[in-house]
Amino acid sequence: MRLLSIPLLGLGVGLLIPLSLLAAEPITPIAAPTDIDSNKAEIGKQLFFDPRLSKSGFLSCNSCHNLSMGGADNLTSSVGHGWHQGPINSPTVLNSAYNLAQFWDGRAADLKEQAAGPIANPGEMAQPHSVALEVIASIPGYVESFVTAYGDEAITLDRVTDVIAEFERTLVTPNSRFDQWLQGDATALSSQELEGYQLFKSSGCVGCHNGPAAGAAMFQKVGLIKPYTTDNPALGRFAVTGKESDRMVFKVPTLRNIELTYPYFHDGSVDTLEEAVNIMGEIQTGRTFSDLETGKIVAFLKTLTGEQPNFPLPQLPPSTPATPQPEPYGP
Amino acid sequence: MRLLSIPLLGLGVGLLIPLSLLAAEPITPIAAPTDIDSNKAEIGKQLFFDPRLSKSGFLSCNSCHNLSMGGADNLTSSVGHGWHQGPINSPTVLNSAYNLAQFWDGRAADLKEQAAGPIANPGEMAQPHSVALEVIASIPGYVESFVTAYGDEAITLDRVTDVIAEFERTLVTPNSRFDQWLQGDATALSSQELEGYQLFKSSGCVGCHNGPAAGAAMFQKVGLIKPYTTDNPALGRFAVTGKESDRMVFKVPTLRNIELTYPYFHDGSVDTLEEAVNIMGEIQTGRTFSDLETGKIVAFLKTLTGEQPNFPLPQLPPSTPATPQPEPYGP
Questions:
Q1: A35, A109, B46, B98: which is deepest, by most CB within 10 A?
Q2: CB contact (8 A) between residue A79 and residue B58
C-alpha cells in the first residue's frame, strides 16, 4: 500500500493515509472471486477441456480459448468444425466474468448463456445440445461429479453451462505489475510504463478502458472519430438490437493480458500492440501518437499481464460403450 | 512386496523371499526415468502444447496426443491441417519411450526422430521445419530457455526434437493397480481381475504384450491365425522394409492405459475393449472367448491404467512482431 504522510502541525507526527484513497485510479485492481463452488468449477474445468462436447470429438472450449495462450487462440478468426473459418476474432476467456455481456456484440447476457452457443454453432463445435448432454450422461466419471455438485444425476444444459460458467469465473488474472503498483508498490512500474499510463489517461483511452478489467464494462462504436475500415462484415450491437445507432458498436475489450491476446480488434486484423495503439488513437480519440508515445503506452499495456491460470492439466473421465461416437468426417 | 516364507528345516524359522523373484511375471512394473534433463523437458512440454509449431497456429502435438485423454485423441483417425483425415489411429504418447520404434510401422527409430514427422507432414501440422524453427527463434521466452538448456541461442531441429523427446520420456504412467499387485500388494486386484490376467497369460496374449509396457517391444503380424479385415490401406512394416514378410506387420501397441486409448487397432475400427479382446483372441491366438472370459480379460486390462501426467497447464511465451504469422486458411 502506498502511504502519504501528512504532517500534523505542532504535533511533530504525521498521519499516514493510503494513497489509493487520495488518488483513485480509473483502472482498479482485479481479484479472483471468493465464492466459487469448487465442485461445480472442477466439472466445468473438465468440460472446458473436453472435445467430446463437439461433434468431431476434436474441438473443446480450450481449442479457441486456449488457457496456455492468454485464453484466446491468437488467430485472426477461429477454426471450427470441418475447418470452418470463424467470422470474428476469438475474445479471451480470461477475466470474462467482468464482461458486461458476452460475445463481441454482447448477444449473451452472461457466461452461462454464452457457454451454450459455441457447442451447438455449426461453424464452431457443431454438436446439438441433446447429443452433448447424452455424451456427458454416458460417462460415469461425469455423472458422479454432477451428483456431488447438485445432489442428483440430472445432466441438463442448464447445469452444464452452469459448471462451465463457474469454472470461467475462476479465470481471473490478478497481481499484474500494474495491480502491484495500484496497491502501493511504487517500484512495480518503470518510469516509461508510468508515463505510458499517464498518457493513456490523458489521451482519453480510459474513457472506455477502465474498471478492474480495463474495459469490458461498456459498448462503444469502433470508429468514433474516424471510420474503422475492415473487410469483416460484423455489425456489432446492430445485429442484436437492430438500432441504427448500434451499427459498429462492440463491447470494449478488456486490456488485461493484452500482450498475450493478439491479434487485435474484433476482426483480428492487427498483429502488434503498437499498431493497435496507433489505430485506436486515430479513430477513437483523434490523436496521432509519436513513436515515443506509442512505445510508452505499449510498455504500460504490458504491465497488465497478470498471473495466468495455474492448475494441473485436467484429466477427463473415459467414454463408455454407451457414449455417442464422435463424427469428425461425417456430412 | 509379496513375500513367501520358506521353512528352513530343523531351525524353526522361515526364509522370507520376495515372491517376484520366484514367479517372474511377463508384464513388469513401469517406472518414470530418473535421468530427465528438467530444463530440456520443460521446453519440450511447452512446445508439445504450442500450436505455433503448426502452419495453422491451431494444432499442437497435444491436439492428437491429448494428455487429458490418455495421450491420444480417441478418434478413429486424427484431424490434421485443413481438417485432413489422417490415415491411421493416433497412438498414445504415454509410455512411448518404451516403444522399440515409433509410429505403427516403426519407421522412426526413436522419439526424437518421431517428433520431426508430424510437424512437417502436410496432412498433420503442415509446417515446414524451417518456419517452425523461425517461429521458435522469434520468441524470447523460448530462446532464453534454450540458452539455459544448451548454453547458446541456436534453435535447431535437432534441439527442438531433442527437448520434445525429453518431455515425452517423462510421460510414464506408474503405479497402476496391476503394478501395485506386481510389487506385492495382493489386495490390489479383485479375483475377477486376477483370473483375467491368468487367462491373458494362458491364452498367449503375453506372447506379444509383455514387458513394462505390456507391448511396444516387438513387431507382429495383425492376423496371425486368421486374416484381419479392414478398409484401411496401411501395410505396416512392409511400407518401411519392402519385405513381403512384413506385410501387415505392425508394432504391438502398449496395453498400458488401454481403457483410455480407444478406439482400438491401427485402423481405429473398434470402439470397445470387449470387441478388441474378442478379435485379438480370434485372429492372433485362434481362441474364441466366452463372454465371461472376455469380461475377465477386460477387467484385468483396466487395471493397467496408471497415474496420468500431473503438471500445471503449460503457459506459452508470447509471439513478437518478428514471429511468422499462422496461416490457417491459406492455400
A1: B46
A2: yes
Interface test with chain B among A46, A313, A320, A327, by most B beta carbons within 10 Å:
A313
- State residue A204's pLDDT score: 96
**Would you say B72 and B260 are in contact if contact means Cβ atoms under 8 Å apart?**
yes
- Of the pLDDT bands very low, low, confident and very high (cuts 50, 70, 90), residue A10 is very low
Give the domain CATH number at B266. Answer: 1.10.760.10
User: Do A192 and A276 fall within a single domain?
Assistant: yes
* DSSP string for B186-248: TTSS-HHHHHHHHHHHHTTGGGTS-BTTTS-SSEEESSSSSPPP-S----BTHHHH--GGGTT
Residue A13 lies inside a defined structural domain of this protein: no
Query: Which of A171, A269, A274, A315 would best serve as a mutation to test chain B binding (most B beta carbons within 10 A)?
Result: A315
Point out the domain boundary residue: A119, A138, A169. Answer: A169
Domain that holds residue A249: 177-304
Element (H, E) at A80: strand A79-80
B66 at interface of A, judged by CB pairs closer than 8 A: yes
Q: Give the pLDDT confidence score for residue A274 in this predicted structure.
A: 98
Looking at the fold, whether B150 and B209 belong to one and the same domain comes out as: no
Confidence of residue B46 (pLDDT cuts 50, 70, 90): very high
Rounded to an integer, the average pLDDT of A285-294 is 98
Please indicate, yes or no, whether residues B161 and B279 belong to a single structural domain of this protein: no
pLDDT of the residue at B16: 52
Query: What is the pLDDT, as a whole number, of residue B330?
Result: 77
